[in-house]
């Protein structure tokens, strides 16, 4: 059982159960550890079923019983056929727990079994510990600090919280291409001047966020480049460097064109239609002429407008009334408000004029477009009419000598027809080989397209295989490093020969035990056969002796007494044999009872009864406390 328990403990550690190094057998498992091991196995076997089960026992006894019943039902749902209940987890029994854990370990998926066979190096152990800690923290619900109980205060320690604020980082550039060289100045800067990434952010709390942001950006850029190269780069039939250079050149041209177009003056007017600079200046001049010279709005700052407004009002007020020392500030404010209202009215009037001019401009532009379209249509009609007029004019000129002209026209038509026929025959001679050549070239082109598409697909598949092979090589390299680390951590005194010798000793012991069992079975068979032979011989001897003595007993009185003694002897022998058989049966029963006593002692019945009594008392106390709360409520 020791080897079985070691295998169970190792497998439970692989699925995430926190088993201490001191525990090396199922006998040392506590109720909390049994519950955690069963829940971890159920979460691997059926995540939907095991995710709702807690990995630890609650403090209340009624809640413990409910958790035990839930675990028993979950084990039955995954196919466990043995006798199981809440007592299996709360009052543990070594054989039942061992059989349950063996069943759950056998039900684990093969992927988990393969993962358990993988080496556990330092990096893998650290990663699993980090993942387990994160899962445990995510499983605990968040509570405000004022609502936390002492049970949750340890799992949810209030620490300093920082917002996710990422800042740009500068790291040394690693050249993967051996042909790519780095400048000496860049190397000197990165080696002597560039500060570490932990010092570059303005706040120390932003280091992690900045590193995550930089890593995510580099990873997304690499993935985008792979996708673009696999979709468009391979079709361009260029090397990655040429494709990158071509893309960079195209991007520079687009930026230059955009800057050039932005630097050129716009040909569109601000009023919605095409208008030249002179037309715009004339329109502004007309707009200025529509208002009095004193009311022309010139461009300026708010300070200049305020100064002009103040000086203009003061200059206008001088001839009417000279301000004296007795003039109050209220009159000045009233006058300024009146002037502000008048200026607002003028501004509204100007805005309405501007809107009217915009509407007129749009209407004029639409009218101008319509007139241009109509002019183009009339020009097209005039050209068609001129062509018809030329044809009619030539026809009229030919009417005075109509007969001769008809003969000439017929001769020209016949000559043109013969020429067309001759040209058609010549074209037919040239067309047939050209068509054949065209078909041949088209077929060659289609074959080349098929060949290029096939090669392109092969190249893509090769790229995929290269990527997969690279990933596998990386995984094998990491596995090799882990194996080397594990080999270095293993004790040097334990050698392969020692393990082999131990295995051979175990096999030889099993072989000896098997031989002894076979020998005992053969001896038992021989003894049973000998007993059967002696029993038969005894029965036959008694029958012959009984018959002979019975014949002589009729004649002689002494022989009759011998016959009685013979019958008594036979009966006593039978009783003796029966007594011996009963003694063997009793001895076997005694051995069975002793084994049962040992089993019960191993089941810790007395300790379980004491625990049951303690739990019963705790339940009674909880019930009394709940009843008191109900009475108070």
Detail the poorly predicted runs: 112-117, 266-281, 286-326
Give the helix/strand class. mainly alpha
The total strand number stands at 0
CATH T-level fold name of the domain at 2-121: Actin-binding Protein, T-fimbrin, domain 1
Shape: elongated
Helix content: over 70%
Rg over CA atoms, rounded to whole Å, is 55 Å
What's the SSE pattern?
Answer: HHHHHHHHHHHHHHHHHHH
Terminal-residue CA separation: 56 Å
Largest sheet: none
Our estimate of the beta-strand percent is: under 5%
The average pLDDT value, as a whole number, equals 78
- Counted by DSSP, the helix tally is 19
CATH class of the domain at 2-121: Mainly Alpha
Question: Can you describe what's shown?
Answer:
- The protein has 633 residues and is mostly helical.
- Among the domains are: 2-121, Orthogonal Bundle (Actin-binding Protein, T-fimbrin, domain 1); 184-259, no CATH class; 347-400; 410-488; 516-602.
- Helix content is 76%, strand content 0%.
- The chain contains 19 helices and no strands.
- The chain has helices at residues 2-14, 31-45, 47-50, 61-77, 86-90, 94-107, 110-117, 122-139, 150-153, 184-193, 207-236, 240-263, 277-289, 302-320, 329-398, 402-489, 496-553, 557-602, 605-632.
- Helix 2 (31-45) runs parallel beside helix 4 and helix 17 runs antiparallel to helix 18 (557-602).
- The longest helix is centred in the last third of the chain and has 88 residues, at 402-489.
- The two termini are 56 Å apart.
- Mean pLDDT is 78; it is low at 112-117, 266-281 and 286-326.
């Amino acid at each position: 059982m020791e080897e079985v328990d070691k295998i169970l403990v190792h497998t439970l550690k692989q699925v995430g159960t926190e088993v201490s190094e001191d525990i090396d057998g199922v006998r040392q498992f506590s109720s909390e550890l049994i519950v955690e091991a069963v829940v971890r196995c159920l979460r691997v076997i059926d995540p939907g079923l095991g995710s709702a089960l807690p990995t630890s026992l609650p403090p209340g006894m009624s809640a413990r019983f409910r958790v035990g019943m839930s675990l028993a039902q979950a084990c039955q749902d995954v196919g466990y056929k043995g006798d199981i209940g809440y007592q299996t987890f709360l009052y543990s029994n070594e054989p039942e727990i061992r059989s349950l854990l063996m069943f759950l370990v056998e039900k684990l998926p093969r992927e988990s079994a393969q993962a358990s066979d993988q080496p556990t190096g330092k990096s893998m152990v650290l990663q699993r510990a980090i993942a387990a800690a994160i899962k445990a923290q995510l499983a605990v619900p968040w509570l405000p600090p004022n609502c936390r109980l002492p049970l949750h205060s340890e799992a949810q320690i209030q620490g300093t919280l920082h917002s996710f604020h990422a800042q740009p980082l500068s790291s040394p550039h690693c050249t993967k291409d051996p042909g790519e060289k780095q400048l000496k100045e860049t190397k000197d800067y990165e080696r002597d001047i560039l500060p570490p990434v932990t010092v570059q952010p303005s706040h120390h709390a932003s280091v992690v966020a900045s590193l995550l942001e930089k890593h995510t950006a580099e990873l997304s850029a690499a993935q985008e480049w792979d996708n673009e190269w696999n979709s468009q780069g391979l079709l361009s039939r260029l090397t990655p460097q040429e494709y990158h250079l071509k893309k960079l050149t195209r991007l520079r041209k687009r930026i230059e064109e955009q800057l050039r177009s932005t630097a050129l003056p716009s040909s569109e007017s601000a009023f919605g239609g095409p208008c030249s600079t002179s037309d715009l200046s004339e329109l502004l001049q007309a707009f200025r002429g529509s208002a009095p010279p004193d009311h022309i709005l010139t461009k300026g700052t708010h300070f200049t407008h305020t100064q002009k407004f103040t000086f203009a009002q003061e200059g206008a007020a001088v001839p009417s009334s000279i301000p004296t020392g007795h003039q109050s500030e209220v009159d000045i404010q009233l006058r300024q408000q009146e002037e502000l209202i008048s200026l607002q009215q003028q501004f509204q009037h100007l805005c309405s004029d501007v809107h009217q001019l915009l509407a007129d401009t749009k209407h004029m532009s639409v009218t101008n477009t319509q007139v241009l379209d109509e002019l183009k249509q009339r020009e097209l009609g005039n050209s068609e009419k001129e062509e018809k007029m030329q044809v009619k004019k030539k026809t009229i000129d030919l009417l005075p000598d109509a007969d001769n002209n008809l003969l000439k026209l017929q001769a020209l038509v016949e000559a043109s027809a013969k020429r067309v026929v001759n040209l058609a025959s010549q074209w037919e001679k040239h067309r047939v080989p050209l068509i054949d050549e065209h078909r041949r070239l088209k077929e060659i082109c289609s074959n080349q397209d098929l060949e290029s598409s096939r090669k392109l697909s092969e190249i893509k598949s090769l790229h995929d295989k290269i990527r997969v092979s690279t990933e596998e090589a990386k995984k094998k390299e990491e596995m090799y490093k882990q194996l080397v680390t594990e080999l270095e951590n293993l004790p040097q005194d334990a050698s392969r020969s020692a393990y082999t010798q131990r295995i051979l000793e175990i096999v030889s012991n099993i072989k000896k035990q098997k031989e002894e069992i076979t020998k005992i079975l053969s001896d038992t068979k021989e003894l049973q056969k000998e007993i059967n032979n002696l029993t038969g011989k005894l029965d036959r001897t008694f029958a012959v002796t009984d018959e002979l003595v019975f014949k002589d007993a009729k004649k002689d009185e002494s022989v009759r007494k011998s016959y009685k003694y013979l019958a008594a002897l036979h009966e006593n022998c039978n009783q003796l044999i029966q007594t011996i058989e009963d003694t063997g049966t009793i001895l076997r029963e005694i051995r069975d009872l002793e084994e049962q006593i040992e089993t019960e002692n191993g089941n810790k019945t007395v300790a379980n009864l004491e625990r049951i009594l303690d739990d019963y008392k705790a339940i009674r106390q909880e019930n009394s406390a709940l009843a008191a709360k109900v009475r108070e409520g």
